[in-house]
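Subject: mismatched residue count in predicted assembly?

I count 675 residues in my input, but I want to confirm that the predicted structure covers every chain. Input:
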Amino acid sequence: MTSTPILELNALVKRFPVKGGLFGPKKFLSAVNGVSLQIRPGETLALVGESGCGKSTVGKTIMKLHDPSEGSILIDGRDIAPLSRARMKPVWRKVQTIFQDPFSSLNPRMTAGAIVGEPLTIHGLASGAEKDRVVAETFRKVGLRPDQMSRFAHEFSGGQRQRLSIARALVVKPDLIIADEPVSALDVSIQASVINLLIRLQKEMGLAMLFISHDMSVVEHISHRVAVMYLGRLVESGPRDEIFRNPKHPYTQALLSAVPIADPTSRDRQRIVLKGDVPSPIDPPSGCPFRTRCPIAEDGCARAMPDTTLLPSDHRVACHVRAREAVA
Amino acid sequence: MNDVAETEHTVPAADSRETVLSVQDLSTEFRGKKGSVRAVDGMSFDLKKGEILSIVGESGSGKSVTSLSIMGLLPYPTGHIAEGRILFEGRDLATLSDREMRKLRGAGLSMIFQEPLTSLNPVLSIGRQMTEGIIQHLGLSREEAKKRAIEMMRRVSIPAPEARLKDYPHQYSGGMLQRIMIAISMSCDPRILIADEPTTALDVTIQAQILELMRNLRDRTGASIVLITHDMGVVAEMADRVIVMYCGRKVEEGRVDRIFARPKHPYTLGLLRSLPVLGHAGPVGSAELAEIPGVVPSLDALPPGCRFSDRCRFATDRCRAENPPFEEAEPGHFTACWHSEKLEPLA
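Triage response: the counts match. Full output below for your records.
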């Protein structure tokens, strides 16, 4: 692909201070530890991993809800990491967010029309009758009726509320959507319609999307490329089919094999069941962060953090063992 | 062992195992400002020894209320069992006093809840909470109970259990607490384990550990498990038999392979077709997921006739007027649908 990435992260780090006791040394938790990735227009990149891996922190740092500790965040080629919040406004028109919980992310005192129209006012894009027209058009686009504009959020079902969040994000015609677990809170029968909507809108509008999710089945359905995180680091990334059909990192392999498959005839498939829990990010293991649970770990894995190895088909993996295998 | 047979109406004749729990025409109501609503309406099933029975449904289907009714844990005073019997070892649980129920919980019937953090007491040590039931139900001394607790913790892969007995819930991770809950619920060798969304709050790698544990416990002790979940993937991995609930009623029941290959109710078919299944995705945007139109109706505004009729693409005037009976469509496979013969098997 030749187009400039709409989003580019270079060695992004986000550290949070944690209390180390009254007189203890000040400690830091590295929620995001050197993440680099790119998203091009019209492309959906899924950022996957389990709770605490830092995937949501990446999304929040791009939105500058957290200030990055190190690294750069390029939106359309311009680094926003050093920008103050006040100077972020033009960026926020290009980058919009959809959150997981459609119940707490919509103002209960505003009508649905006002919620969706607010970004137009903030960015000075439309007012008066023109604003109403754009809002009505956006309502139709996400499968809501313009006559529902005067209703309040609580009068909508969970799926409709998530459509409202999508409408609010799309109304300013952004280039990039950051969707943080946008369907996880929805019932299965509703989930399908929101996933279909996201894919359709993305195609129609040529949007780029950062799709943050823990649900591998949904990710496989919706994304063009996938990046897998573990304990604040990217362990593997590449085109979707490479990650799902030809996973290389032992964590990705275990993650995929742990997903329950809605087909009783596949029960006897080979599974990798990981032992133990994810280590604390305050006190991560030396060397490779995954080595404490890794089925193929060697002595050398404790000594150094693995570099990212580029494999054929734009497939990247951070693993000592796989790097050696690739050379051999 | 007491035998509570003679209730063969929902069970395929082929399954000759002993029935350990029999729920018969259970209806559970909740009193609210606008009068009572019936969250469970005429629920019946038999649970066999050593069987994993899965109850699936979305929010509001009545699956959790069914389990709370069995355990005698309905919120007081709003919730109560309006009709029906729950037979366990020859006794009707619906008529037992709180005191009698308390004796049964733990050793006879045991339950795992969705949220381990809210089911454990934050100010008591894990050791205290683990030994409490063991002392109560098995009559062991404090020392013996401690030994058993350590053994149970080892079985659920808690590292250094002797040391961790002294710790409090906040010192454990979420996955460990859920394993502790499982250890507690299995520590008195219950005959029946009711697990209500036991892995919903957990990551998939931890979920895989917990599901394997539950399977092992069944294989080892012959316990029967009622697994309540919304996740069709978990059902496919775990269940021998499946009950699908919608709006407080059972709409389909049968062996797991039959339910997934040849669903007999349009709601089950819709659920299965709406799921992205790992390993089956084509190019992005090449195939839309099947949507079930509309939303689950509220319990105080249910449509007449079949409760799924206003969302069902097979629905006719008859469906909107008359509630379909729950009948055997194929041997051992039951459904409540006027048009079940029109459903195509899934590819």
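Chain A touches chain B through 49 residues (CB under 8 Å). Marking this ticket as 'not a bug'.
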